[in-house]
């Protein structure tokens, strides 16, 4: 309740994620098994331009001039500018803060007849100061050749990068009895969606908010007259985390930004929680800008939804643990088939368009993977240090092998197309099938 997008930087960690089902597709040829488990996930680079909401990549970051003696100071200022969090006082400087109604010592909603108005637990040191910061990168590399080095300049100059610390503030800017909060889930399904919905509702009730609704089927629910908002309360969401999917339903696209803000005004919504990926958050940002343009006192909070675990400022995204758990089942199936076949090779393709966290964690946890290929690390298929050469060595020495590959890895080996899916993502070539064909042609012939 403190800011327009205070929770957009980092959110609470949710546990007890519901389990999704992995469907295995097997292709057998000369002892080669290819498994492609499908776990529900959002497409990370989502662009919903058909609905009037579209993502735009910022290109206003200036190039660094390392000859400038003050380049480091300028770089840090530019970083602070790009990671600045908008606050309601930016638009309404006269907004008066009130003592927070949230306290972990009090797990029940605020009573309307509370003596003196709003409680302020001065003795509880559980609030976050607005000036608290978290160091984004904690490793100081001394050389660009160090393993995993991420350097700004050739000399690996240390530049501190600080981001805002998330958590409850001592002062808030919305009176709970005047809040009507809405929750919307957009894009594809993701394990843990109901967990997030449940925790948002419970936390809002701890603050004392009584009017909480769910917008059905994504942004579409703002304009479709056949879809009614769903009243939410602790009683409604108490056991929803035991079920998969989304209590509110999901969809892609939706009406124009102007129509959505019109709908929010008509419904009296002044706090919106948006669960989704890139395109969904582009829409949330557009809603925020439209609300600012109309000078509406509305808070828009983004909750990143991706099982790929590829959000910069978050330790772990919800759904990631479930994805890794289900991926291990596919790896185990591939291992059993490969180990049972004469010179068997199992290829498991997992989600991960731009990052290989699922593939890496699943491979490490299973202990059955011989080769793990991820987008962050380039590799060769042919040659003395190529994947195929090592696979041949494994067949000769072990008799079988298992390869785990993220879907975005090795795209340089595949023919590129300009095709995009319904969400605007570039359609990748199938690296799993490509590896299968290469193995069949180079090892088993």
| Global mean pLDDT | 82
Strand order of the biggest β-sheet: 1-2-12-14-13
Low-confidence stretches: 2-61, 113-117
**Oligomer type:** single chain
Largest sheet: 5 strands, mixed
Number of helices: 10
How far apart are the first and last residues' alpha carbons, in Å? 65 Å
* Helicity, as a percent range: 25-40%
Dominant shape: globular
Q: Which structural class fits the helix and strand makeup?
A: alpha/beta
Q: Could you spell the SSE succession in H and E letters? A: EEHHEEEEEHEEHHEHEHEHEHEH
The number of strands is 14
* Rg computed from alpha carbons, rounded to a whole number of angstroms: 25 Å
Share of residues in strands:
5-15%
Structure description:
This protein is an alpha/beta fold. The chain is 26% helix and 13% strand. The chain is built from ten helices and 14 strands. The chain has a five-stranded mixed β-sheet, sandwiched between helices. The protein has a five-stranded mixed β-sheet with strand order 9-8-7-10-11, sandwiched between helices. It has a two-stranded antiparallel ribbon with strand order 3-6.
Summarize the SSE layout with pairings.
Layout: E1 26-29, E2 32-35, H1 71-82, H2 88-91, E3 98-99, E4 133-135, E5 162-164, E6 171-172, E7 180-185, H3 193-207, E8 211-215, E9 230-231, H4 234-237, H5 257-267, E10 271-276, H6 278-293, E11 299-304, H7 320-340, E12 345-350, H8 357-366, E13 371-373, H9 387-397, E14 401-406, H10 431-442
Helix pairs in contact: 5-6, 7-8
């Amino acid at each position: 309740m403190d800011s327009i997008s205070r929770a957009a930087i980092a959110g609470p960690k949710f546990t007890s994620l519901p389990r999704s089902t992995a469907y295995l597709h097997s292709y057998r040829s000369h002892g080669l098994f290819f498994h492609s488990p499908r776990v529900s996930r959002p497409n990370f680079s989502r662009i919903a331009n058909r609905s009037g909401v579209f993502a735009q990549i910022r290109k206003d970051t200036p190039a660094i001039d390392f000859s400038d003696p003050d380049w480091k100071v300028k770089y840090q200022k530019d970083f602070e500018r790009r990671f600045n969090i908008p606050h309601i006082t930016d638009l309404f400087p006269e907004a008066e803060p009130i003592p927070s109604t949230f306290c972990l010592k009090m797990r029940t909603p605020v009573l309307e007849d509370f003596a003196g108005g709003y409680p302020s637990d001065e003795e509880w040191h559980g609030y976050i100061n607005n000036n608290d910061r978290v160091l984004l990168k904690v490793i100081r590399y001394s050389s660009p050749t160090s393993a995993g080095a991420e350097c700004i300049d050739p000399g690996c100059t240390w530049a501190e990068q600080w981001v805002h610390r998330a958590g409850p503030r001592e002062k808030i800017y919305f009176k709970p009895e005047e809040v009507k909060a809405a929750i919307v889930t957009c894009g594809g399904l993701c394990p843990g969606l109901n967990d997030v919905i449940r925790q948002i509702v419970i936390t809002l009730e701890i603050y004392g908010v009584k009017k909480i609704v769910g917008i059905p089927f994504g942004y579409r629910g703002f304009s479709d007259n056949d879809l009614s908002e769903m009243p939410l309360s602790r009683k409604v969401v108490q056991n929803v985390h035991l079920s998969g999917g989304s209590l509110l339903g999901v969809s892609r696209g939706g009406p124009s930004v102007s129509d959505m803000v019109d709908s929010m005004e008509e419904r009296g919504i002044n706090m919106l929680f948006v669960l989704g990926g890139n395109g969904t958050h582009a829409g949330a940002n557009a809603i925020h800008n439209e609300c600012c343009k109309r000078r509406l006192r509305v808070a828009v909070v983004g909750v990143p939804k991706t099982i790929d675990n590829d959000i910069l400022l978050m330790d772990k995204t919800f759904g990631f643990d479930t994805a890794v758990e289900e991926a291990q089942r596919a790896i185990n199936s591939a291992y059993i088939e490969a180990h049972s076949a004469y010179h068997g090779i199992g290829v498991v393709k997992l989600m991960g368009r731009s990052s290989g966290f699922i593939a890496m964690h699943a491979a490490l946890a299973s202990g059955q993977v011989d080769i793990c290929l991820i987008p962050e690390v380039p590799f060769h298929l042919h040659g003395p240090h190529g994947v195929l050469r090592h696979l041949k060595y494994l067949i000769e020495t072990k008799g079988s092998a298992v390869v785990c590959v993220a879907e975005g890895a090795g795209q340089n080996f595949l023919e590129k197309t300009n095709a995009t899916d319904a969400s605007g993502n570039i359609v990748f070539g199938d690296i799993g099938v490509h590896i299968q064909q290469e193995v069949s042609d180079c090892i088993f012939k």
